[in-house]
Design goal:
about 50% helix, 5-stranded parallel beta sheet, about 140 residues, Rossmann fold, alpha/beta
């Protein structure tokens, strides 16, 4: 069986750590058919270390998340996406850039509007055939 790849943005972890059962159920349902990945830059938005991030660390382990580094090409693509969309959230743009490079099938996000807009701005020749799933 070929597993798809699902990129998780920081909102997934924040919601789940706050006890959002719908996010936990979505993750449980998707783990059997998908590899969960997270762009390393997303850690900065939800991980604070020590006891303050115990729940988030537990989720990273339970969901067997693969950490994907952000590389210079991601930064360049994210900057181009921000210019094309006149947006300013570099974290969202990096989520889309990492998703494109990693050839994911889905992005689970709490910000589907901006993520979808950035996806639509991906240049021809880049991977843009992924679904944006609202986890709110």
């Amino acid at each position: 069986m070929i597993l798809s790849r699902t990129l998780l943005d920081s909102g997934v972890f924040i919601s789940a750590a706050r006890g959002d059962r719908s996010v936990a159920a979505l993750m449980k349902a998707s783990l059997g058919s998908s590899i969960a990945i997270v762009g390393a830059h997303c850690l900065a938005e939800f991980y604070r270390g020590g006891g303050r991030s115990a729940r988030e660390a537990q989720l990273l382990n339970r969901w067997r998340v693969e950490m994907v580094p952000v590389v210079s090409e991601d930064g360049k693509l994210a900057g181009a996406l921000l210019a094309a969309t006149r947006r300013s959230n570099s974290m969202d743009a990096l989520v889309v850039a990492v998703a494109s490079r990693s050839r994911v099938g889905r992005i689970f996000t709490s910000d589907p509007g901006d993520i979808g807009l950035l996806r639509e701005a991906l240049p021809m020749g880049t991977h843009r055939d992924f679904v944006v799933v609202d986890v709110r």
